[in-house]
């Protein structure tokens, strides 16, 4: 599977962005899909995940984005989205999407993802 992120931009604090991750080459129905981010000088961290069909469209979020970010997927379009509201300067990072077939309980770990996109830059100005 190949993943391509888009939608990153420069936005003011308090603003919103929607990131998209388009998948090709394989049916993403077989995968849980996750969003991660990496700020300069920091390790890549989990942001959100959405389950594959059959798990009741479960979602999971990092504490730092709960209530502000929403992850969703459109299986017909092979696309996953990350709606980001009330953005803060600390949300500035390169955002990556990735896929995994790991048990849902472990979707928060970067090491469990097998394929990654190239990333899209999100910059939030204060």
How would you characterize this protein structure?
It contains no helices and 11 strands. With 126 residues, it is an all-beta fold.
Rounded mean pLDDT is 95
Shape: globular
CA-CA gap between termini:
37 Å
Oligomerization: single chain
Tell me what portion of residues adopts beta-strand conformation.
Answer: over 45%
**CA-atom Rg in angstroms:** 13 Å
**Biggest pleated-sheet summary:** 7 strands, mixed
Query: What is the element string, with H for helices and E for strands?
Result: EEEEEEEEEEE
**Helical percentage:** under 10%
Question: How many DSSP helices?
Answer: 0
SSE class: mainly beta
Total beta strands: 11
Give the low-confidence spans: none
Notable traits:
126 residues, mainly beta, seven-stranded mixed sheet
What is the secondary structure topology, with strand pairs?
Layout: E1 2-6, E2 10-12, E3 17-24, E4 32-38, E5 45-50, E6 59-61, E7 69-74, E8 79-84, E9 93-100, E10 115-116, E11 120-125
Parallel strand pairs: 2-11
Antiparallel strand pairs: 1-3, 3-8, 4-5, 4-9, 5-6, 7-8, 9-10, 9-11
Structure summarized in a few sentences:
The chain has 126 residues and is mainly beta. The chain has strands at 2-6, 10-12, 17-24, 32-38, 45-50, 59-61, 69-74, 79-84, 93-100, 115-116, 120-125.
């Amino acid at each position: 599977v190949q993943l391509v992120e888009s939608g990153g931009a420069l936005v003011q604090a308090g603003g919103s962005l929607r990131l998209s991750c388009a998948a090709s080459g394989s049916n993403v129905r077989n995968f849980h899909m996750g969003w991660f981010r990496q700020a300069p000088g920091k390790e890549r961290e989990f942001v959100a995940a959405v389950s594959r069909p059959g798990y009741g469209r479960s979602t999971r979020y990092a504490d730092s984005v709960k209530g502000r970010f929403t992850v969703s997927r459109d299986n017909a379009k092979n696309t996953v989205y990350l709606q980001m509201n009330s953005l803060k300067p600390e949300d500035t990072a390169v955002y990556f999407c990735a896929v995994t077939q790991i048990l849902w309980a472990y979707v928060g770990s970067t090491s469990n993802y097998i394929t990654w996109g190239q990333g899209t830059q999100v910059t939030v100005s204060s």
